[in-house]
Amino acid sequence: MxxxxxxxxxxxxxxxxxxxxxxxxxxxxxxxxxxxxxxIDGCMMISLINIYxxxxxxxxxxxxxxxxxxxxxxxxxxxxxxxxxxxxxxxxEGRVFFDLxxxxxxxxxxxxxxxxxxxxxxxxxxxxxxxxxxxxxxxxVWLDGLFMAQVFSFRFKKCFGDKDYTDVINQFRxxxxxxxxxxxxxxxxxxxxxxxxxxxxxxxxxxxxWLRATGWYLAALSDVTSYIDDEDIKAEFKGYLQHAxxxxxxxxxxxxxxxxxxxxxxxRQGNYLETSGSALIAYAILKGVNSGLLSEDYRAxxxxxxxxxxxxxFKEHDGEIxxxxxxxxxxxxxxxxxxxxxxxxxxxxxxxxTTDAKGVAPFIMAYVELL
Length: 371
What we know:
Helix content is 52%, strand content 6%. By secondary structure, it is mostly helical. The model has no long low-confidence stretch (mean pLDDT 97).
């Protein structure tokens, strides 16, 4: 299958996008927000860094540098970011600091990485030692947070820290121990260590398996495992990755090779094949194969998922190619938002949008792994 339209699609987005107009950030556009250092734009920058690494085309790194320079001042302070929110999502965009520092040797990017790491040093933790997802979500671990903060944390320790990865390793182990369903092998979206939240059961777990949360976790697991040097720990994490991939593949739609918004309930009315989570799973598989974490047999599986997205969701609309079928957002709580209760009905009620970076970036990331 040829992917000729993808490069033109990426070029259109970067030609139209800027910090004041992130055309891939639908929440920003709909709510008319001011510029911010956020995970959605961060996903887009990560995907562009990845395609630059693969192709060497300077337009991609130039765009990322110019975009990030809007947020980093001459002293390495990150603008439009508030450490005191203790929001793990806001760490994600900082992953590009390591690459920009490597390419340009500009101390601002190193200082900016330290600036963000100060948040993680002070981030509140559950009794098990895992980061709270945000200050407004006390004692809660969300699968999303592993992608948002742990990949950054591992790279920080590798590039600028003490190369002691124990904390990162243990936070993944907690997820394996607390959030993995023994029957299906799938992972619950959230865990409340206090067991007090309205959406939590007697074990502190949310009710369902949300696809994009699963995808965030698998992508984080694939990324972090690819960085691990210790052979014993690497073998342990390779086992986590393969079992998690094998478990979710049981729920793949056989016609499209995509996955459902609520992973294991494809037969329920209202459930739908969702793009962003499917793309994250494709990326995790292909990155796993390319990094030697999964056997070569999985390459065709990852490609079939990507091809399903390309065929079914990458389509012309009003004269332009768009990537559709993307869940705009989903979460759990907080206390004053009872609608976000982790139920099947909740997950299928959130808006479905086109060309949002939560889907576009994983799509590009998976595409790069295919190249």
